[in-house]
Fold these 2 entries.
Entry 1:
Amino acid sequence: MSRLNDYRELVPKGTIDFLNRLAEQVKGRKILHINSTKLGGGVAEMLWSDVLLLQDIGIDAEWQIISGTEEFFNVTKSFHNALQGHDQHLSQKMLEAYLEVNRENAKRLSIDAHYVVIHDPQPAALIESRPAQGKWVWRCHIDISRPQWKVWSFLKQFVVNYDAAVFSLPRFAQRLPIAQFLIYPSIDPLSDKNRDLSPQEQAQILSRLNVPTDKPMLLQVSRFDRFKDPLGVIQTYRLVKKHHDVRLVLAGGEATDDPEGKTVLSEVREAARDDPDIHILLLPPDANLEINALQRAATIVLQKSLREGFGLTVAEAMWKGKPVIGSSTGGITVQLLYGVTGFTVNSVEGAAFRIHHLLDNPEVMTKIGEDGREYVRQNFLITRNLGDWLALMSYLGRAT
Amino acid sequence: MRVKIAKYSFLFTGCWELKEMVGRSARDEQQLLEAIEEIPLDSLSYHTQSFFLRHKYIAGPYPNDFATWAAIQVRDRVLGEKLGILDPYDFENLEALRTEIVNIIDEHLSQLQIIPRVIYGEPFHFMQSRIIEVPTGLEARTLREFRKILATVDASAVYYHNFEAILRLGRRMGDFALWIDEQLDLPELAKKISSLDFYMTSLESIRQRIIKLCDEVLVKEAPE
């Protein structure tokens, strides 16, 4: 029995047989994914499942990571911030360090495949070493709708040499002379982060995390990153707390490619002061079961990001039947259809108002939770992502 | 009633929609109009018809993206209503649909002093469909076989044989009705299927309605 078959009962009817048929169009081809980390963050998480499923369906799929110095990751973090619109200064020396690490990785990695998919800016310059054969795709997971132009111009000189680019939202599209496709990210319903948990399993994990379940729980799961606005979440909680006795859990992992995490975390601890109902959990990158248990225990899940690539934690919570309140930014707006599958808000006050509304109307929470789960089943499960990649490979293959 | 066996089997074909960005957007209704005049037909198709491949829920008040954008993002409910009622099945082809959309927006703008634009909302981002056909390997030679496969086949096959076939491939009756008429010699059933209102519903609902129509014929048929 293949791994893909395990999804049969979770996905819409006919999906698995259909994917097997679609895969026949590209069977025997090799696809190579390259990114900068195997742990931490949504990209790495998605790639673990993607690669296994591609292999399972008969595609020769491989995943390699680039290695880099601390200086390199500081530079790429600045890239990340600049591409999301924040002012960053990048010196010539920093850009040289970026290029040098890419050149070294090009020598070290075997980058020969029918399809090479480069994820995000870190390995983007590998395109300079592309072999004559094969289609190269740049997969950008971050919000580059308002980039700092100097940095984008630097990166763009590499992007234009790809055969296609893939973005997570239409608004991330850029003026480029290459084809640009839209692929929404997805979640794996059978991964430790999303699989069903028994009540005992859930209780044990929460007890280990020292999170009581005696009060309604507000939860935000995200890296400790300014773009996720953890301080805004604490302000929201304080507005809600005036009328409802709730707990707030801020649970965040640290990605190995994010040097800023520690600074933000200390600011959050300072803001929480000694409130016993605020729980700040710094989780290791592989704390998938812990996040799963927290999302299942939550009453309402928040994703109050100021900027967001896609915000897969929203789909994760929706899959668990939880009502989600998220900011009107990035991919959150695609997942939360206002009043149908969740609520989008634009401020601390807006988030607090919606939390009040939901806590006072449990039947609305139930309905939103059910519809949210169904919406994720149709649109944001990994089987849909698999189909998109198979279709893209088929399409690019025909264009040869 | 005798079981009719087709000379040529019905081959179920599904499809996968690859979403390509056109790289063009509109922040006001004039820009929307100008872009609609120029976009490829694959883009027009994406925003008016392949919607059904992507949404089980209607993600806005209307079943096409232009109307929803006008109503929600621009907050021009009048234009939203005028565009929302458009049914692609009323038009000979996508080019005719494009002409009608352009006429509606043009007429609407001619009555206004100020061009409505997004202030807090999102611009309209033009996309286009790249439809990848996927033969399912499933085939039927009788109505009973057809009905059985239809009940379980991926919903994209329902889309392909009814939306794609009619609106983009020019097979005006739709593949299901055409085969039932020509191969099974059941013109009444074919007519009922081709008369269904495909537009204001979902793929699952269309599937169920066609199955029901097949069942009405099958109860009169002798068992195979």
Entry 2:
Amino acid sequence: MSLQDQVAQLFQESRDDVYRYLLSLGLHPPQAQEAAQEVFLRLYVTLKKGEDIQNPRGWIFRVAHNLGLKIRAKQSTQAPFDAELELKLRSTELNPEQSLLEREHNILFHQAVQGLSEQQRRCLLLRLEGLRYPEIGSALGISASAVGEFLRRAIARLKSKKGEL
Amino acid sequence: MPHPSEEQLLRYSDGELPGRNTGQVHSHLKACWQCRTNVEEIEKTVGACVRYRTAVLQRHLPAPPEPWTDIYRSFAEIDATLPAPTFADRLKQALAWPVHNPKKWVPVAVALMLAWGLFYRYRVTPSVQAAELLHKAILASDSRPATPHLLRIRTKVSSFTRRAGSEQALASNAQDRETLNSLKTLFQEAHYNWDDPLSARSYSAWRDQLTAKRDQVQEDRDSYRIRTDTESGDLLDASLQLRSQDLQPIEGRFEFRNSDWVEITALPEEASPVASATPAIPETRTAMPVEAAPSNNAAPLLPAPTIGDELQVLTALHEVGADLGDPVEVSRNDHNIVVSGIGIAPERQAEIQKAVASLPNVAVRFSESAPAAVAPQTVAPENPAGGDLRQLQSRIAEQMGGRTRYDELAAHVLDMSEPLMSRAYALRRLMERFPVSVEAQLSPQDLATLRRLQQEHTAALRQQTVELERTLKPALKSVGGSSRASREPALSSNAWQPATEDLFQSARRVEKLLAVVFGAAAPDDSANTELPAQLLSAVTDLRAKVEAYDHLLAKTER
């Protein structure tokens, strides 16, 4: 498989995940889409220069994280993107097949995730994308042991909230 | 092994524990219903997170506004801008690999050489060295008068003193006797002589009967350390430290298949503390040398490290921020200052090693997992006033212009509380290490260093508190929160040690109230309507205490 095919395949598999992660950093959809594409092109250039990347998916999220923060910093006067997920979760039109109980459950769990500290939430989202602790640490600029601690706290908080559901 | 901590269980579930620890936790889980249930709870929460990703994030986050571009076209554009390699370049590259491309083959060659070197160093040479060293140590031991020596024995759960060859601990109670009996069984089953465990002869006899083993011999400034690990038998890893000047054993460590470990240290007769079996094992400083030297021409031993030396180590760790949340502990014994860390990433370990590398008598020990017993689960209690609290949070959200703004504020202030508490803990640790009696032993220079550390933490804490107050005030005032300044003096004492405890408790109160108001913990019995005022007052109180503390430190410096 050529280098172009490899990157294109990864793009096909991961672009939506990267795009959603960038939304979670507060980028608005057009910026997030543009940044997501930019990340894969950077990967292509880096590999083409002969650099060895052991885990391309981990690399992509690390670069996406840094690029996303840089874009947000440049546009600090603009309010971060709010997907208004809670409103969407409440909507019966958007969730016709869900029972009231399921909707309520999703809302409360969403509130619990939003209640996590920023670092805890970022660690959790990156872990959900399949990144290992050292890769998350590398993306966020913290140690792998700190990632473990943030995740522990996040899981403990969500566990206690889950008990209330 | 004791119950793994919650973090260990999460790391286990995530496949992030190092191999050996994974095996230990795995074995523990087979035997322990409680921990297995805890892992299941973690897995359930992880499952809920995965469902959240699918049912909420993937489903309800907006799709990309435009169709994705054809990435091959972008590749072509990039290729057009990058200089294309000429035929000569490609030929050169093909011929250059691997012989003329050191980047490719040098690492391989170095790795091979290192592998051979390590094999030779750790598999071939050390076995011969270990056998020779033990043989010499046995001869040296035979030439000394046979005097039974005192041993301090430490295990995971207890510490006591016994005389070699004796069945009894010096301070014998039922618990000591029970521990001694179980240790005796443990050593006997491992074919290790329990009567005289800290001797070259016993070590050698155990080592000789092993079918397969690996030895390491390490030479330090004033001692040799032989370490043998094996897969056969119940004793998997043992080490014996021999004093260079007379090859007398001074310390041994034994790790067993069932995860128990035992440390044995030789004690001087005069200074032998008669310890009892207690969970806490305070390090006692002994004025005498490690062991009475048997011959008249024995060289003097290195002086025991001082509190000033310990302060230097603390300062070095402070320089790399290892006193702010890293699970690092510093302790001092008769021989050295021990910096121990649990579950620290290899890169961070290297930074910490480097920070203390230039300091004398420092032993750095890292372990992969927390050996401490798991703390009881702190599940938020049922909250009868939860509805009120939600109302309060909704009011704050309303005043702030929406739930999203509120969530951002909640995340922001909860994030702020973590570094703030790290500073409060760092100050408290200094207080614990330097009570008045210990502080009095410091030289003026060391005292100035201690003050500098305190002042740096205090300055950071002050800045964080001001920032927190600035962030909270607009949000909480809108729901009736107003800070009430206390008429009491900010600090209860003019001595910095009790003042530190005041400061710490004040920071804890802020942390707790933040967690309650922003939904990370359940409230206590107080009325929720008062929470905003309580929180603002607590932050104002903390700020006043930090300022008074800063002033107090400045006064003590004069």
